[in-house]
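re: ur question from yesterday

yeah so i grabbed the chain u mentioned. its 592 aa long if i counted rite. heres the sequnce exactly as i have it in my notes:
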Amino acid sequence: MSAHKHVLNTPQTLVVDSLKGLVALNPNIKLDEAQRVIYRPTGAEPRVTLLSGGGSGHEPAHAGFVGPGLLDAAICGNIFASPNVAQIRRGIDLVSSPKGSLVVVMNYTGDALHFGLAAEQYRAGGKGDVRVVMVGDDVAVGKVQGSIVGRRGLAGTILVYKLASALSDKGGDLDECEKLARYACTRLGTLGIGLDHCHVPGTKSGESHLGENEFELGMGIHNESGTSKHALGTTAELVDQMLSKIVDTTDTDRSFVPFQNDGSDEVVLLVNGLGAVSELEMGGIVNEANKWLAGKKIKVRRIMSGAFMTSLSMPGFSLTLLLLPRSGDKDGYSSDQILSLLDAPASAPGWKYYAATEPGVVSEEKEAVAHAQAAKEVDLAPLDSNAFLAAITRACHALIEAEPELTKQDQIAGDGDAGLTLEAGAKGILNAIKDGKIKGQNVIEDVGVIAEVVEEDMGGTSGALYSIFFAGLGRSLREAATSGSKSTTPEVWAKAASDAQETLYKYTRARPPSRTLVDPLDAFTASLPSKGLSSAADDAYAAAEKTKELVAKAGRGAYVNQEDLKKREVPDPGAWGVWRILDGLRGYEAKK
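ran it thru and got these structure tokens back, copy pasting raw so excuse formatting
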């Protein structure tokens, strides 16, 4: 969708239409349509109520966070515009509490004036106590430049009111909730980047002021320009630029958060999408941020990721770090206390899942050790190790030699890649033998390696089918070993082949005769117990040859002209590939 196209009735009704949809989605909340206030009815037990709000266009912030454990009310202005004083007073009235109310909003001039005035008027009227906390977590603008207006409020605002609301639920009074909120503000650093500006519905489309490979560092959430432009690099490079500025304490003008950078820092990481960054990309950002922090010996206690505070459909994201208290800090809070409040139950459409525990990383070395240990739990030796490896090698060379004819067949009956696909798998297996990964000493382990190689090197449908077959073959061989078999007798191989075919049938609807690879495979497994390998291979050849006459019911051939296929008398290349493998195995006649 082009950046200036939107799905709406009219720009004028968009905010209210959206709020009505939110109420339909969440029946536990209500809407005061006239004043555009989303709220939840207060419970019988008085508690400090939490409010937030601001301009619309940042969804799910803030209306999407009205719910248990989060906000009691959100007051919504027009897109990127603060709500007026009357709206805010109405919001306070709807959720007023004998224990008072705490308003947590982002530090922008309009919000500061309107929310502040509404709170003052409310208190002056003797209706109750209302406090306002302005969150400024942006680190893009230095202290000198922002000396009057202060830091902008960004995604860290969500964490502030989550903590304060959880404390209220635990019985905290207004003083305690306000104190915690202000403390959290001093521990927050956020920096955003934008690949372009967003478009506000109902306004004229503007021209991008960023080049195709440029981004803006320090971009705001109201289409404000960033502090600098840079060439767009990799995710790792972006994350490095952003987090370096958040944790840096050497630049006194931009050092807002008291990091020690001595290995003792612990943080909560919030990765926030600004509206048009895919979930696929967000996962990559989380990965790089987590790695970067680990590399700087900053311990990540929690990771949160998602669209928490957007800028309509801006292509960009922000990174937020909440620096947790250290042991011995004099502020009266502990790391575990802050985390317990953050982890406290919360329910609202905008609240994203996150694991209420530290991120875990299993090293590749540990995984390899675990895999090796699992593979060596049981052994099943071939009767003749050299003959076993020789048979596999012959089968692979047979496929490589057959590549031209398989490719030619598939150019007629399919998409032309069958020969190259099978050749890639065969070469991968030969390399595994050469590298000592397939040793010919434990067939369970060797078949497992073959399954992995064909999956990785062949790819596509063929790779999946062969990998499933070999996985089923390995499972059956393992069962034979655990049942007492010490070596691979003809009976063990016959049963394993039959079991592998049944495993394959779980995931493909093709059944003989279907003009697919299952035709020779079925003929082979049916004949193997009584006829032995060579004769079973002969039956597989006959079935593969028969596919020249068949109407394709599955696989690549089902999509081409069937009459033309019959006239060309071309066997199914997948079936022919199975026959060539089995033909190569001839000579491996295991003796009892």
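noticed a couple things. The first helix runs from residue 14 to 25. also The two ends are 68 Å apart (CA to CA).
anyway ttyl
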